[in-house]
């Protein structure tokens, strides 16, 4: 049983493994288990199926989607590629397998800059998150042409909300996810993926943190740092899709061995190439 860092507390508590989407997929590849029940959203279970073709990947709630992943389709990407011939396409892991299959290389929120720099290209197209693209643009000489998708949960967080939270907790460091808007990024003490926030808060001498990402991560931050204090930046940082999965759904999936997430072999083969290219990029 694997649970993403944004899942409900009781799901994270019950899971054998927790983590970000790529970390979970890598752990899935290493385990002896033949069946993985993946508590997260659809694209994450697909990533596990891409990396572990011989395992059965169950997604307890088939209706757990990701509106950001839905901002791009293979057809729309093909059309954009035709307008920008020769440009390498960097695609965030938060996309369907079919979109990964149409891309050149994947990235996560933890390695976007290293991935862009590894291409040694003058211009790249980055899909689908415009905020991650804008964040990566700060650290590279390559021109990043963004796709105009975003995660509504992160994008709706305003600078005013962050300033208000900071005023209430002046001693706390602000950790923001790169899916946040540029003006929120500007107010952060550190910008990290969920796994990056877990590592940062462990190593930092600071005792209090304001967390600007989906509030499910607070469970994991508190569990791993029992003496430190973590506060949500805003109550609105809740992803309804991430909260769909309940323990009953997990039990039901394990009883029926359904629903299974499958990626067609031709799509899987191409999507795996884009994931493997990312895994071969050395960290900056
Ligand atoms: O890739 C993931 O797991 C997501 C969606 C966020 C993160 O920063 O870990
Ligand atoms: Fe998608 Fe945002 Fe929810 Fe993550 S938090 S699953 S990016 S909508």
Structural class: alpha/beta
Cα distance spanning the termini: 32 Å
SS summary, helix count: 14
Mean residue pLDDT: 97
Oligomer: single chain
- How many strands, which pairing sense, and closed or not: the largest β-sheet? 4 strands, parallel
Second CATH tier, the architecture of the largest domain:
3-Layer(aba) Sandwich
- Portion in beta strands: 15-25%
CATH class of the largest domain: Alpha Beta
Q: Give the CATH superfamily of the largest domain.
A: NadA-like
Q: How many strand segments?
A: 12
**Which ions, cofactors or small ligands are bound in this entry?**
(~{Z})-2-methylbut-2-enedioic acid, iron/sulfur cluster
Query: In percent, how helical is the residue content?
Result: 40-55%
Low-pLDDT segments, ≥5 res: none
Question: What spatial order of strands do you see in the largest sheet?
Answer: 2-1-3-4
Concise summary:
This protein is an alpha/beta fold and 284 residues long.
Structure description:
The protein is an alpha/beta fold and 284 residues long. It has three domains: 2-64 and 242-262, NadA-like (Rossmann fold); 69-151 and 269-279, Rossmann fold (3-Layer(aba) Sandwich); 157-232, Rossmann fold (3-Layer(aba) Sandwich), CATH 3.40.50. Helix content is 41%, strand content 16%. The chain has helices at residues 9-14, 21-30, 42-51, 74-83, 97-101, 112-118, 130-137, 152-155, 159-168, 182-185, 194-203, 217-224, 247-256, 265-279; strands spanning 2-4, 17-19, 35-39, 56-58, 89-92, 105-107, 123-127, 143-146, 173-176, 190-191, 208-212, 229-232. The strands form three sheets. It has a four-stranded parallel β-sheet, with helices on both faces. The protein has a four-stranded parallel β-sheet with strand order 6-5-7-8. α10 links the parallel β9 and β10 (190-191). The longest helix has 15 residues, at 265-279. The chain is globular, with a radius of gyration of 18 Å. The two termini are 32 Å apart. 48% of the residues are buried.
């Amino acid at each position: 049983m694997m649970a993403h860092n944004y899942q409900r507390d009781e799901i994270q508590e019950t899971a054998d493994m927790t983590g970000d989407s790529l970390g979970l997929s890598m752990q899935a590849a290493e385990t002896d288990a033949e069946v993985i029940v993946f508590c997260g959203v659809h694209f994450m279970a697909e990533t596990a199926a891409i990396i572990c073709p011989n395992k059965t990947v169950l997604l307890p709630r088939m209706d757990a989607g990701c509106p950001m992943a839905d901002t791009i389709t293979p057809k729309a990407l093909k059309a954009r590629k035709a307008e920008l011939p020769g440009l390498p396409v960097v695609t965030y892991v938060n996309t369907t397998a079919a979109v990964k299959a149409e891309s050149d290389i994947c990235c996560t929120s933890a390695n976007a800059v290293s991935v862009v720099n590894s291409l040694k290209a003058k211009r790249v197209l980055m899909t689908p998150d415009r905020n991650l693209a804008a964040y990566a643009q700060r650290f590279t000489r390559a021109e990043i042409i963004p796709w105009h998708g975003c995660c509504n949960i992160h994008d709706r967080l305003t600078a005013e909300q962050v300033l208000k939270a900071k005023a209430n907790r002046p001693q706390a460091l602000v950790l923001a996810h790169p899916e946040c808007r540029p003006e929120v990024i500007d107010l952060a003490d550190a910008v990290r993926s969920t796994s990056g926030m877990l590592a940062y808060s462990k190593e930092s001498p600071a005792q209090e943190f304001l967390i600007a990402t989906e509030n499910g991560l607070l469970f994991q931050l508190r569990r791993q740092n029992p003496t430190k204090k973590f506060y949500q930046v805003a109550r609105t940082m809740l992803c309804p899709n991430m909260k769909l999965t309940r323990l009953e759904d997990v039990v039901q999936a394990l009883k029926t061995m359904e629903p299974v997430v499958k990626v067609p072999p031709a799509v899987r083969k191409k999507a795996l190439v884009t994931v493997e290219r990312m895994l071969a990029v050395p960290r900056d």
